[in-house]
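Notebook, p. 212. Picked up where the previous page left off. The plan for this session was modest: take the two constructs that came back from the sequencing core last week, fold each one, and keep the raw output in the notebook itself so nobody has to go hunting through shared drives later. Recording the first one now, exactly as returned: residue sequence, then the structure token string.
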Amino acid sequence: MKTRLVFWLVILITLVSVYIDLPRVLPMGVEKPIFDLQWGNFRFYRDLEVKKGIDLAGGSHLVFEAEVENLSAEDKQTALESVKTNIERRVNLFGVSEPMIQTARFQDDYRLIVELPGISNINQAIDLIGQTAQLDFRTLSEEATASATLDDFLPTGLTGKDLARASVQFDPNSGQPVVALKFNDSGREKFAQITEENVDKPVAIFLDVFPITAPIVREPIENGEAVISGNFALDEAKQLTIQLNAGALPVPIKLVEQKNVGATLGEESVQKSIQGGLIGLGMVILFMALYYGYLGVLANLGLIIYGLITLALYKVIPVTLTLPGIAGFVLSIGMAVDANILVFERMKEEVRAGKPASLAMELGFGRAWDSIRDANVCTLITCFILFNPFNWSFLNTSGMVRGFALTLGLGVILSLFTGVVVTRTLLRQLAFFKREKVKK
């Protein structure tokens, strides 16, 4: 009963994957519905299209250098991360699909690498990205009503130049994260006057003419040190701190490298990569069928299911595919049947030892699992290091390398599922069909 339940679950997952893998526009002009789900403030939207990186879709590769010579050593990295966050927001507003933005440091050079797939107006993007962040504090005008808009907030003269630093702290009473502001000498006097005139009123903080927060003033603050509280999660408090420091530590950036990638090159690369992948897949399928017979046929069926699920995940996550990413997927195809080969060879050994076929199958999966697990865990550790999720500076991995690590890592995890769970379920179900045929 359990095997049959898993069998139908595998079929359900496969059918859902097939639906996701289908093109957006189906035959006869029928357009496939997209994922657009919303629960309160959370929205999950996917257009179920494959996202292409700059080397496949074409676009621009830009390298900016941050001028941090006048900052202290401890402020340089903070300033660079703040500029990165500011550029990410500007690029998203520009409407670039799946941009890649990362920081890099080589000796005393602090740089930002920006890749803009499919961008058409490169000069406008450069002008937008290259601006220094502008932070300013604004208060409501006297004519503002309860339904105030952004136009009702007026500049006060208090800007990012008056803010010394923003940092994350913790409320000693509640333990909740808060954002602490510290103003310099000129900012202390301005902020004291603003808070004195706006008690129980909002003081909005704008970055690049967009509001990032609007806390309510509870009392006049004369010492130049304020705290913004509001039941922040730790990540939210960190994000707000980075945005504030983007304006408090104004860092000019200059364009030092620009490289354009043509879409024609991307299309040609995709075609050759697909051809290579299909040839490799065909050779694997042929080898498994000829060498292992019906066992190989079942393994091939699991491999097809693996491919369908993998492509569906690429669309749902979504994964931005690059040429190295496709290489990671092609490499994972061979690893997807590696587990089956280990299992089948163990099954042969058990059969030669005189075990019944059904018992040999179970023993084969059980005794091959240790080897399968250890080999795949080692590969996953390598993928983790290459992906560099914590942005360790000593690794300095590029977006292309991270794309390879992501697709290979996903492929390894899915190969464990299809190679062990799917193939094992198919074998058990085949044995069940054989038993039913003998009874009849």
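Okay, moving on. Second construct, recorded in the same format:
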Amino acid sequence: MRILFRSLFLVAVLAFAFGISGCEALKKLGGSRKKPPRAEAVAKPQYAGTIVLVNEDEHFVLIDVGFSSVPRSGTALKAMSGGVETGVVTVGEVRRRPFAVADIVSGAPKRGDRVFQ
């Protein structure tokens, strides 16, 4: 039993002397095991609001963001209806909670479409 304690003490002293932390010492004793590469985390689209008004003549929409924060101006949002993208809009300078005005960049978003960041 004394030999075991002396051996552990000697290993601890040597590890401390060489500046190896406990976890590093165990890694070195156990060999190098590489973790398999993780798949890239795919960012889920965040719900930004619902389109409540579409002005096709002036090419803008009014978005009701509800209780969430109003996106910053210049933020691109995708308009979706039934899981299908209906258009892309960009948030403009006019933002007054709970509404934001966004310019239509492409597509034909409709009233009731949900927008995602």
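Notes on construct two before I forget. The longest helix spans residues 2-17.
Flagging for discussion at group meeting.
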